[in-house]
# Entry
Amino acid sequence: MPPAKKRPRTYDHLRTRTAVLAQFAHVRDAVAVLTPDQLARPTRLGDWTVRELVAHVAIGLSSVTGSVALAEPPGPKPHVTLLEWPSVTAAHAARIAEGVEEVAAGHPDLTTLFEEAEAGFTGAVPATGTGERLLATRVGSMRLTDYLVTRTVELIVHTDDLNEALGLEIPYDRQALAACTRLLADALADRAPGGSVEVRVPPFAVVQCIGGPKHTRGTPPNVVETGPLTWIRLATGRTEWARALEDAEVSAGGERADLAELLPLMG
# Structure
């Protein structure tokens, strides 16, 4: 009999909205002072320059506005749950890349692009409500609150990409970092349900995964522990499991404490 999956974690709609806006503001402020030379630098995202990466961040926030603006709701139930989202994004990568290149080329003034994205978001997602509305997103219909959680992933991951490309220290909003970390940890537990390995990402997440003997008390025999940013880089393919172990960015104890075959969670 397969291991039972736990009830999905819930997120507070208004706190998540606040976190999205806070992290977007951190990126917006950094983008406002980038030079043409900095905008032309390469990133670790294939052929994208910093300019294209920045345009993608703005598009990611504007996608919420566009989905809310649709006249007809997509249906009574979501097609994509929050825990399914990390697995379905890769199929849309090529189409996303095309749109980013068009926006980056057509918007030389990135400050205006960011201002428009932020204004559209705050108008479409008021600081009230429950977040239960269904949105027709690129990957399928999702609850508004769930889609906002995915925006914390996009923002935190791409803030890290910008910091890596430019040698900057753009801040990470704590609530946005927490939501991103928790979603990716929960996605791992959903992909490989079980209780033989405990994955700890202090101070934000602890999950159990992988089928096998389950511990009932004391320290579990198989433990993986790492920090939030390293976990996010592992889950999104920014770094590899073997490299993180070699660089002592991950500690793994026990014969089952090997996540190499399960990572990355997002393509």
Observations:
- Residues 200 and 225 are 5 Å apart (CA to CA).
- The chain has a mean pLDDT of 92.
- The chain has ten helices and six strands.
- Strands lie at 134-137, 140-143, 197-201, 205-209, 223-226, 250-253.
